[in-house]
Amino acid sequence: MILSDADILERLENGDLVVDPIDDYDLQIQPASVDLRLGEEFLEFQRTNIPCIHPNAEHEVDEYVTETIVDDGDDFILHPGDFVLGTTHERVEIPDDLIAHVEGRSSLGRLAVVVHATAGLCDPGYRGQITLELSNLGTAPVALTPGMRVSQLTFTELKTPAERPYGSDRGSKYQDQAGPQASRIGGDHEFGGDQRSGDDRRNGGE
């Protein structure tokens, strides 16, 4: 079952679902979703002359990204072909009986801006801000303003609560993340790490 606005408001009031802060309920609560705003932090990928970034390489992916914090009142310019990691302004907590889907807003989609490449899922039990995988598929730069509504969450109720929700018991890599987080796929079991839950493809979401 997909939650309606009435269902979402009831879950928010009960406190088992958290989306915080919501400054304007009339604006952010849609008929079957919650609009999320863009944060001020971005991770930009540096140009590099290495042949590739391999998940099990000695160098961490973090070495190839730089953080940009946009000053109040300024914009982040997303150029054609760019791929950057952003973050939601809001922090979410997903209860064990819900799954959340991260979607782009159609108004931005019509400007050729997409908000996720593959990480469109917030698992039951996830807590934290949501990393956005921002791309400009168009031919003109687009100004992104922190605080603008950039994505939306829809919620699906599970038939039964997850027995092993996202979190420390699973060794989940992105639990309680704050700001955009670079890939931690090198910690996955198949690359010699201890991660066994497939978290790299989700937003903890990721």
Automatic annotation (TrEMBL):
Residues 159-206 are annotated as: Disordered. GO terms for molecular function: dCTP deaminase activity; nucleotide binding. It comes from the Archaea. Residues 160-173, 186-206 have a biased composition (Basic and acidic residues). It is an enzyme of class 3 (hydrolase). Its EC number is 3.5.4.13. DCTP binds at residues 105-110, 123, 131-133, 152, 166, 173, 177. Keywords: Hydrolase, Nucleotide metabolism, Nucleotide-binding. One of its GO terms (biological process) is dUTP biosynthetic process. It catalyses: dCTP + H2O + H(+) = dUTP + NH4(+). InterPro entries: dCTP_deaminase, dUTPase-like_sf, dUTPase_trimeric. Signal peptide: none annotated. Pfam families: DCD (PF22769). Pathway: Pyrimidine metabolism; dUMP biosynthesis; dUMP from dCTP (dUTP route): step 1/2. The keyword Transit peptide does not apply. The active site is at 133 (proton donor/acceptor). Homotrimer. Belongs to the dCTP deaminase family. NCBIfam families: dCTP_deam (TIGR02274). Catalyzes the deamination of dCTP to dUTP. This is dCTP deaminase. It comes from Natronoglomus mannanivorans. The lineage of its organism: Archaea, Methanobacteriati, Methanobacteriota, Stenosarchaea group, Halobacteria.
